[in-house]
Specification:
The chain is mainly α. The chain folds into two domains: 62 residues; 132 residues, no CATH class. It is built from seven helices and no strands. Helix 3 runs antiparallel to helix 5. The longest helix has 40 residues.
Length: 195
């Protein structure tokens, strides 16, 4: 559990720097250059992900159950994951109405992903992992929206129907690809709901 905890602290810590300590981020950007800062940020994030994956895999070998989720929640989780992937897609597709409306859709996607997984996973490691990411995404979203308001940045802007449709289709495709192929390969657990 120590490796999982350390990985969460490293990964979330480096992602909190821009929102929680913008002055530090600016200083590092000046000192390292924008490319240097991105490289350091990326390497630290990868290290955090490695520690999370290793720690979570180890914790799953000796699970400590807090609760036993009812099987019907898997249907709600599947629906929430579709919503999460649509928000993730909205973060990358320019000029879509979802991003213009909510601002920072990636963080909303992370919140939705975390809630979906908390519904169907009942171990201490699950609560630590998904609960930490939920808390980070909520806090980070609030900080980013506060910074947007202070800077006079509005989420509204030019949107295109085609961009919004591409976002929705991309979210659906990502959900299907992850559920059918990537989740079993990367996580070792099928994400397909059995009747």
């Amino acid at each position: 559990m120590l490796m999982l905890t350390l990985g969460i602290l490293v990964f979330i810590g480096i992602h909190l720097v821009p929102a929680a300590a913008p002055e530090l981020r600016d200083q590092l950007g000046k000192r390292l250059g924008n490319t240097g800062w991105r490289a350091v940020h990326g390497l630290v994030a990868i290290l955090g992900l490695y520690l999370i994956a290793s720690g979570y895999a180890a914790a799953r070998m000796e699970p400590v159950f807090i609760w036993y989720p009812p099987s019907f929640l898997s249907h709600l989780t599947a629906l929430l994951m579709l919503v999460a992937f649509i928000f993730v897609a909205a973060a990358w597709v320019p000029k879509n109405a979802i991003k213009a409306k909510v601002g920072h859709p990636m963080l909303i996607g992370v919140k939705t992903w975390a809630i979906a997984h908390l519904l169907v996973n009942g171990t201490l490691a699950d609560f630590l992992l998904f609960g930490s990411f939920l808390a980070w995404a909520v806090a980070s979203y609030i900080m980013h929206r506060r910074a947007d308001r202070a800077a006079g940045v509005s989420g509204a802007g030019e949107t295109k129907i085609a961009s919004t449709l591409i976002t929705l289709v991309l979210g659906i495709v990502l959900t299907a690809v992850f559920a059918m192929w990537l989740h079993p390969v990367l996580i070792g657990v099928s994400a397909i709901i059995r009747a």
